[in-house]
Write a structure and sequence with these properties.
The protein is an alpha/beta fold. It is built from five helices and eleven strands. Bound molecules: zinc ion. The site of zinc ion has 5 residues, from loops.
């Protein structure tokens, strides 16, 4: 029996819960009236049931969602939750293209998700620079790395950056190997995130997988990710503890193969 995730407050009005697989973080942004924006909720059906029950017990009403990017573990949902599930237009297009394969991947890893709820995303208008909802401001920080249409959120009131599948303490930078310039995209994305964090004096970073960090940890992760990219670019073997995880060592080999193309 694995433990059900429970929400912990990590910043003002900002709560996270950790799933059993891949140290995946669900984030809830709560407005003073109890309206809730859920970001990348997951992962198993039992975990989503537990999160839905806890949210209801806390008096939270889920009125909006956000998927940072179109990978299957970021487009899950629960029948108890309402509202549009926002994502960038590029993420929505990508999700529609890979939907069948993604439903199959989800079923293989965590069976039982209702396909009717899977990946039902709504595209943000191209000019939207924040999530259209009634709660605290959530600024959309678009960039092109890891997956098509990836976007982070900054919560200015909480000085918090929700980084999606970027800036993890556990995962190396995972490139979008289908992109024309995966490495260039990743360098640019780190600059974009660093700038957004500075503009909003961010002191809490929440990755999609891994642990919540403070501003020193945010700087450490940006530096570690740049060191990894630099080694990759220069053809050196990266000195990076995260590569001790076998599936990440595998991803690293895939990066090398992609860059030799
Ligand atoms: Zn991902």
């Amino acid at each position: 029996m694995t433990a059900a995730p429970t929400f912990t407050q990590v910043a003002p009005g900002t709560w996270t819960a950790t799933a059993n697989i891949w140290t995946s973080l669900t984030t809830a942004v709560i407005s003073p009236d109890g309206a809730c924006l859920l970001v990348d909720p997951g992962i198993s059906v039992a975990e989503l049931d537990a999160l839905a029950q806890e949210a209801a017990e806390r008096g939270w009403r889920v009125t909006a969602g956000f998927s940072t990017h179109p990978h299957w573990d970021h487009v899950l949902w629960h029948a108890a939750w309402d509202g549009p599930r926002w994502a960038t237009a590029e993420a929505v297009e990508s999700q529609e293209r890979t939907r069948d394969a993604d439903v199959a991947k989800a079923a293989a890893t965590t069976p039982g998700h209702d396909p009717a709820l899977f990946g039902r995303l709504t595209a943000l208008p191209p000019e939207a620079d924040e999530i259209p909802w009634d709660g605290p401001q959530a600024v959309v920080v678009r960039h092109r790395a890891h997956a098509p249409g990836h976007a982070a959120l900054v919560l200015p009131h909480a000085a918090t950056l929700l980084a999606g599948d970027m800036l993890s303490d556990l995962e190396i930078p995972l490139l979008d190997t289908d992109a024309a310039d995966p490495l260039g995209d990743y360098w640019a994305a780190l600059d974009t995130l660093e700038r957004a964090a500075a503009d909003h004096r961010v002191n809490t970073v929440i990755p999609g997988h891994g642990h919540v960090g403070d501003s020193a940890e945010l700087a450490r992760r940006i530096a570690a990710d740049r060191r990894y990219l630099d080694a990759l670019e220069q053809g050196r073997e990266p000195d990076d503890d995260r590569l001790r995880t076998p599936w990440l060592a595998e991803e690293h080999r895939a990066h090398l193969a992609r860059l030799r193309r």
